[in-house]
Amino acid sequence: MFRRRWSVIVTGLLILCLIIPACSPSSMQETAKVRIGEVTRSVFYAPQYAAITKGYFQEQGLDVELTTTPGGDKTMTALLSGGIDIALVGSETSIYVQQQGSGDPVVNFAQMTQTDGTFLVSRNKVEGPFDWSSLKGTTFLGQRKGGMPQMAGEFALRKNGIDPHKDLNLIQNIDYANIATAFASGTGEYVQLYEPTATVFEQEGKGYVIASFGVESGKLPYTVFMAKKSFIDKNGVTIEKFTNALQKAQNWVQTASIEEIADSIASYFPDTKKEVIMGSVQRYRDQGSFATDGIVDEAEWNNLLDIMQGAGELQQRADYKTLVNNEFAQKAKESVK
């Protein structure tokens, strides 16, 4: 009888030993699903893809669902309608929402890129130093009116003595997804392109990168993770975890080799050669496009407002404290290594 009782006790203890680890805080951590809508698929967003593939979101207990919603208007519509929780898009979209009188502002909480990501591509090779004045009188295939690429492009052109609406034959009526195809088909002498398309065009002899709009327009909150204020207020813990994962990816992208970064994001560009991805990452990192942390600096915010004002897209200066929340990014910068 004693042996039988002792056997039962031992068996019970063994079962408890198996149960207790399974019930530890780390294993009981609830997984929160987060739906992200990115404005486009681009090597420009390498830290985001790295955060997913390297498991940084998963480490924070987040199940991330990523959808590409082409264009700032579509991305913001998805966010406002509840189709996504977090948008990766230009900060100008949050300002447009505010200008329309929204009672639930869209708040920028983690910056990912800090320069424009487009390049000036010429159909023909340019011998010697590029002279911006050579653009006068040419046909320029630009971006959508009111979008950040076009506004930053116009800012850079004006900075270099070019009035885009007087000195150029400016084409803006082609959908974003078809701009590269239109140029490759013979439309325009110059075009504004993101990577990796710019590098692909160079390798195929379809165009040549002659200037960077990112360098010319300076630092600004170009692509930022944002959410409705109501969502942030209700899901502060999730936003904190999200920003921590992003910060870890931002740290890694600054120190990893270009090949390592390319390998980590290659699955998001299945039709792009590895060397093209590497060249694109190298170009963006060299010019400081990847933000080193999620903090949206006020000086960068003011540069954005200046650019929007110059493009005639700003009704009034948007309040930094209303549309920017650096609380989560500041904590992540201090704690995530």
Automatic annotation (TrEMBL):
Assigned keywords, A-Z: Signal
Main location: periplasm
Pfam families for the chain: NMT1_2 (PF13379)
The protein's name: ABC transporter substrate-binding protein
Subcellular location: Periplasm
Superkingdom assignment: Bacteria
One cellular-component annotation, GO: periplasmic space
Family per similarity comment: Belongs to the bacterial solute-binding protein SsuA/TauA family.
